[in-house]
Amino acid sequence: MSDKFVELSALLDALGERVICAADGRICYMNAAARAAMGDLTGKSLSEALPSGALSLSAGETAACELRGRSCAVSLREIMGLAAYIIRPLEPAGSDPQLMNELSDTVSLIREQLRMLEDGVTPTESAVRRLRLLNYRLWRRTVLRLADDSAARGDLHVTRRSFDLSLCVSELCQTLEFFLRGRAVTLRCSCPGELTILGDRGLIELMLLNLVVNSLMHLGEDGLISITLRKRGEIAELVVDDNGTGMDGAALSAAFSGAGDGLRVASAVCQSHGGALVLSSGEGRGTRVAASLALGGGDMSFEAADGSYERSMDAVIAQLSPWLRPEDCDGRLLD
Prior knowledge:
By secondary structure, the protein is α+β, with helices and mostly antiparallel strands. It has helices spanning 3-15, 32-38, 52-55, 97-118, 125-153, 165-180, 201-216, 249-253, 262-272, 313-320, 331-334, and strands at residues 18-23, 26-30, 61-67, 70-79, 82-89, 159-164, 185-190, 196-199, 223-232, 235-242, 277-281, 287-294, 303-304. The chain folds into two domains: 3-89, Beta-Lactamase (2-Layer Sandwich); 159-334, Histidine kinase-like ATPase, C-terminal domain (Heat Shock Protein 90, 2-Layer Sandwich), CATH 3.30.565. Helix 5 (125-153) packs across helix 10.
């Protein structure tokens, strides 16, 4: 073994993650953790080890995709002049402190309002709005946690029907504009003409809303979010760009690790539609998330559905709730 690979071996084994190094599309090195999990594939084509969602990565990007029947986060870094793919299996969700905190806050406010009612005091409108917002946040955490748990078990319920994804995204952007009014945030939406997909519209909207709220939570002054839908062969690519604070390398690598996290659930939705989620970011330069979806629904078995789809405004508000304010939950504005 050359001095270069001796040094590389010591460096990569110390990471404790599975690492595959490649040059010119072929695997030239695997650390001990990767060999133990996947066997020794040295000399093989990189495509024999990694799914297509990981092969399209650029340096500094992370993708959530399915690898050998298991959801994984794959990050591409350059190490000693080689393309190094760092593989981190996404573990089943553990406890969710945020869910418990929001449940505790909601219960406390309910108790406060009940005491007021018992004393014959009518709750103030501001208190009602606070309670409504807490309810939406708790609803969101519950929905995401249930989806996360289902995806981890491999039984995420996907009901596919044929619909116009371009129209779906355009309509959702119009809904988002309603909540962005009066805020220092610009939303740009670019969609092609009709783009028909066989997929679960509710799950795809859930994915997009969570990508948007993730951007909203990290914007500064003069925030900008761009949503772009385009067709690449038999794949629909939905890209959300922002000019927010961005993430450093460590945060980027761990982006899909949180229990019931919006990005983690969004990646599960992509995988259930034969695609992957690719995340690129940097401190101070914003974040880009690219979601790929197979237009034909992927190779997954599915339940067909007939009939129309009606978007629930309550569901939209719930997914945006981490960014919303109590005054955004005025029932008179939402009727």
